[in-house]
Amino acid sequence: MFHITIKKTYDEVSAEAFKVMEGVLKGDHTPVLGLATGSSPVGLYKEMIRDHKENGTSYKDIITFNLDEYIGLPRDHRESYWTFMHVNLFNHIDIPDENVHVPLGCGEDPEADCAAYEAELSKYTVDVQVLGIGSDGHIAFNEPGCPFDSVTHTMELTEQTRRDNARFFDNDINQVPTSAATMGLASIMRAKKIILIATGANKADAVWGMIKGPKTTDCPASILQDHPEVYVFLDEEAASRL
What we know:
This protein is an alpha/beta fold. It has helices at about 10-25, 40-55, 80-90, 110-120, 160-165, 185-190, 205-210, and strands spanning about 1-5, 30-35, 65, 70, 100, 130, 155, 180, 195-200, 230-235. About 30% of the residues lie in helices and about 20% in strands.
């Protein structure tokens, strides 16, 4: 079930998303958080950092699992998702390194690393999973055609995804990795709640496909139509087709 909030600005979208996150952080047990990378959740993470610094919300017992990681980038690469998460969140809160889980993209056997990640993830119940959505409807790096029953796996990235992400790699698509390790769609669907953030006109078609379109692997995010609690935070451009 979708709970849709539309705001004018990205900062307003982020502040509204934080209200759901805050409810999880201040709930009746120490939560497990599913986290995402990319530009969409950065504002939410700024709100989490602000809350930590101003209100003392502690992350010392919280466990996190990230959605995905590029294959072939060392963890200290400036565009690895390991680095992204530390720069944009982990370095600014009191979470211990041992509580942080990000898929390994630089191992010798990516498939085995994915299986190990799924095995660790399956020991926990994610209380809230943060998502963005790709312009082609992907969530995490589950590209169109990915089976709905997929668990953590490797995924070849489409040219559209690589083109969209080239802005992080000096606008050079040749620098963008061609594959990634990603939680699968079934892995994501196990979360109790989902926060999905999308802004910009380039996301409008994907948002429509997720919410109003047929449930199809052509739009992987459409699987969320079957989830009981999805909070969707949009700006007016991303919501323009609804």
